[in-house]
Amino acid sequence: QVQLVESGGGLVQAGGSLRLSCAASGRTFDIRAMAWFRQAPGEEREFVATMDWTVGSRYSTPSVKGRFTISRDNAKNTVYLQMNSLEPEDTAVYYCAARQGFRSISSREYDYWGQGTQVTVSS
Asked: Rounded to 5 degrees, what are φ and ψ at 93?
């Protein structure tokens, strides 16, 4: 089993920045890819960004490219999501996810999930 714990959410004004962290523990050697998803009230869970754990290749959804950056610290078993130029439309609960396979944009393919952290962007 892998446990994921997110942190770093909060309330920020439009144009501001936040950095989310996701610390992995347990059978971390099983992890091949990690990702961030988000879910706004009344909406389906949406892919944000993903990264291959060993190679470091990454992919982000077009709506956040140039604003959000996914990165990792292998020594700390932690993945980050740096979010800049935040917009009210970015308001959501952000979830960290991990899987044993190659990186994917589909939430159904992830094996492990964190509890989520709330990000609220005021206009």
From this structure: -90, 125
Sorted by sequence, the CB contacts under 8 Å of residue 16 that are 6+ apart come out as: 86, 121
- Which residues is 37 bridged to in the sheet? 47, 95
pLDDT value of position 17:
98
Q: How confident is the model at residue 56 (pLDDT cuts 50, 70, 90)?
A: confident
Contact between 72 and 55 (Cβ < 8 Å): no
Q: Scanning the structure block, which residue is given the tokens 């050697």?
A: 29
The closest of 73, 77, 64, 71 to 35, measured between CA atoms, is 71
Q: What is the pLDDT of residue 119?
A: 98
Q: Kindly tell me the number of DSSP H helices and DSSP E strands found in the chain.
A: 0, 11
pLDDT of 73: 93
CB 21 within 8 A of CB 12: no
